[in-house]
Amino acid sequence: MTTGTSLKESPMAFALTQEQRDIQEMVRELAQKEFAPKAAEVDRNHRFPRENFDLMASSDLCGLIFPEEYSGVGLDHVSYSIAVEEIAKACATTSVIYSAHVSLTASPVLQWGNEEQKKRMLAAMARGEKLGAFALSEPGNGSDSAAAHCRAELKGDHFIVNGVKNWITNGVEADYYLVMAQTDPNLKHRGLVALMIEKGSKGFTFGKLEDKLGIRGSSTCQIIFEDTPVPVENMLGKVGEGFKVAMSTLDGGRIGIASQAVGIAQGAWDHAFKYSKEREAFGKSINKFQAIQFMLAEMQTEIDAARLLTYNACIAQDRGGRFTKEAAMAKLYASEVAMRSTTKCVQIFGGYGYVTDYPVERYMRDAKITEIYEGTSEIQRLVIASNLLKGQ
Ligand code: CAA
Q1: Residue 374 falls in the annotated catalytic set
Q2: Ligand 1 center to 264 CA (angstroms)
């Protein structure tokens, strides 16, 4: 694939370390060779590409950001963002499978888990032996996470869980589900508990498998708990800390989605750039027309800006402390860039952009969800504003 000289390549721009460049090259090669050629088929058939997850596991990508003592590689979050971007450029479905596994399920075990939980659950996810999923939203509440109805009642050394969770990425395919449940509705967000629930637990079943506009291979479904016993040793943090577990997890998750959005935008741009050189109109390549040049220029400028904002959030995360505002800014901007850019890329392809002969229509469909999941663009604006007002 021919690409322009953008921030992602330029030696004089934001300087990636040699290690980060090596990761970029390795993941790009893997994703372009293994994931890109079947992305259209995965999309068409709504097929969960398990073999892609296995390849990410055998390439040590599942453990990229986790300490070596838990079977990880110990790299930084910029490296992780690079990996998600390269995967998303090839196959957005595969990138969200990866991001939901690493950011939304394994990372909170590192942040909130005890030593035994890290050795047991984090290490298995870092090796890619177990696949993770995150369960916060419900049929009746998405943005208002504190309004969870799913109940967890402590009885002896088990919580008994009852309720329904919606929009679960890695749905029927996962092994561990990080579930936020309410122990006392009077306490609102301070009553939530975060539980790692294993597939196969008694009373744990799957509901509707969603038929989605984009990221169609990622297995999104409803999960149902009916008197499901969950051992206390599978609780992350303490009773009442579930909301904080969820919100801090989403801070990291939003960086994953920002990276995915950058990858979708860059992937579509790369296709449009190549097509604009090859396609002729009025006797010359369409990239000789300013109308096309301006679109390419504007898009690449915005994509580079989105990537920088995403790296900034990664650096803030690696420094430690809260990075809520930086993550929300990256996710808000990158997702809107992805939607704008992929729409323009379809425009550059004209009629061919509207049919499945070329992949850009898929990129446009895949982009839309980045403005919705892990907090809508409206929620990101709220989060950014509230942090600015607090002086953070
Ligand atoms: N990290 C740690 N703690 C945090 C936090 C964070 N990022 N954000 C808030 N908190 C803490 C606050 O400090 C506060 O603590 P105290 O109780 O000790 O005071 C508490 O949480 C409540 O905070 P707020 O008053 O700010 O919370 P709120 O109720 O006003 O608003 C919200 C929160 C921003 C609306 C939040 O509910 C939110 O982000 N909603 C969107 C949820 C979301 O992103 N859902 C997507 C689901 S996941 C998904 O998409 C599935 C998938 O598989 C991809």
Answers
A1: yes
A2: 26
